[in-house]
Amino acid sequence: MRLAGKKIIALVDEEFEDLELWYPVYRAREEGAEVHLVGAEAGHTYMGKYGVPATSNYAFKTVNTADYDALLVPGGWAPDKLRRYEDVLRITREMNAANKPIGQICHAGWVLISAKILSGRTVTSTPGIRDDMENAGAIWLDKDVVVDGNIISSRRPPDLPAYGKAFCDALAGI
């Protein structure tokens, strides 16, 4: 249980990509991490794109990033909603400033773009937001997973095994 004692924030909002939320959450929990789902409201059930529900443990505004070791941002259409919450941007910036692992997959890069933390960073994402990532100053690679310091990025669901391993490796290394 190499992640025992580690705490992770997993952001959630409507239309998250089901696998891109749940696969890394379960992967981290299997290694002993405590993962909290965090949404706009505590105790609210959000629906994934394919109908898998996720009930938030906490609200964005109540999260103290000093209490956490890492951040997971799922893809789907949720990132376009998540990036509009100032508290999500605060959480993302604080986790980045503290050099804590930030996992982002598919469209999750939109949150990091809006948090303005991608300039000069090497990342990947779904090819559909490549231009957005590059316009934010990132160097974009077409690879299953890219690790640049504390940012672990991946393209889409077929890349989840490599992404889950890289994220847990990064968290175990701190």
Spatial strand order of the main sheet: 5-2-1-6-7-11-10
**End-to-end CA span:** 15 Å
Enumerate the spans where pLDDT stays under 50 for 5 or more consecutive residues: none
Described by strand count, sense and barrel closure, the largest sheet is: 7 strands, mixed
Task: Assign the structural class, choosing from mainly alpha, mainly beta, alpha/beta, alpha+beta, or little secondary structure.
Answer: alpha/beta
Helical percentage: 25-40%
Q: Could you say which overall geometry the principal axes of the C-alpha atoms support?
A: globular
Number of DSSP-assigned strands: 11
Output the helix-strand order.
Answer: EHEEEEEHHEHEHEEEH
Question: What order do the helices and strands come in, and which of them pair?
Answer:
Blueprint lengths: L6 E5 L6 H13 L3 E6 L5 E3 L5 E3 L2 E2 L10 E4 L4 H5 L3 H12 L4 E4 L3 H6 L7 E2 L6 H6 L3 E2 L4 E4 L2 E4 L5 H13 L2
Parallel strand pairs: 1-2, 1-6, 2-5, 6-7, 7-11, 8-9
Antiparallel strand pairs: 3-4, 10-11
What does this structure look like?
With 174 residues, this protein is of the alpha/beta class. The chain has helices at 18-30, 78-82, 86-97, 109-114, 130-135, 160-172; strands spanning 7-11, 34-39, 45-47, 53-55, 58-59, 70-73, 102-105, 122-123, 139-140, 145-148, 151-154. The strands form three sheets. It has a seven-stranded mixed beta sheet, sandwiched between helices. The chain has a two-stranded antiparallel sheet with strand order 3-4. It is globular and about 35 Å long. The two termini are 15 Å apart.
